């Protein structure tokens, strides 16, 4: 495939998104240790504000990046819910899925698949 088509995966804001995902998973694993959980969760929350700013400043805005940002936000909330309410995790996860506009996220992603990546 075309290298340029996949270059969006390596945009700086998307790399920040991947780091956020790793930080959130690490925070979730070490939820019972506040000295590990808090710095990783705080770093992920801080980077949530940085990735959008970086995308605009570097001219690296993309539908994939917008989708990734929402995905990481939803994963982070879901992971936190499973620790805060372990007996209710399935119910809260279902409520969260019902409260998000999944169709909007899918439309953004599929729209980008059919457009020129140089835009």
UniProtKB/TrEMBL annotation:
<keyword id="KW-0472">Membrane</keyword>
<dbReference type="InterPro" id="IPR000462">
    <property type="entry name" value="CDP-OH_P_trans"/>
</dbReference>
<dbReference type="InterPro" id="IPR048254">
    <property type="entry name" value="CDP_ALCOHOL_P_TRANSF_CS"/>
</dbReference>
<keyword id="KW-0812">Transmembrane</keyword>
<dbReference type="GO" id="GO:0008654">
    <property type="term" value="P:phospholipid biosynthetic process"/>
</dbReference>
<dbReference type="InterPro" id="IPR043130">
    <property type="entry name" value="CDP-OH_PTrfase_TM_dom"/>
</dbReference>
<dbReference type="Pfam" id="PF01066">
    <property type="entry name" value="CDP-OH_P_transf"/>
</dbReference>
<feature type="transmembrane region" description="Helical">
    <location>
        <begin position="7"/>
        <end position="30"/>
    </location>
</feature>
<keyword id="KW-0808">Transferase</keyword>
<comment type="similarity">
    <text>Belongs to the CDP-alcohol phosphatidyltransferase class-I family.</text>
</comment>
<feature type="transmembrane region" description="Helical">
    <location>
        <begin position="36"/>
        <end position="54"/>
    </location>
</feature>
<keyword id="KW-1133">Transmembrane helix</keyword>
<dbReference type="GO" id="GO:0016020">
    <property type="term" value="C:membrane"/>
</dbReference>
<keyword id="KW-1208">Phospholipid metabolism</keyword>
<keyword id="KW-0443">Lipid metabolism</keyword>
<dbReference type="GO" id="GO:0016780">
    <property type="term" value="F:phosphotransferase activity, for other substituted phosphate groups"/>
</dbReference>
<protein>
    <submittedName>
        <fullName>CDP-diacylglycerol--inositol 3-phosphatidyltransferase 1</fullName>
    </submittedName>
</protein>
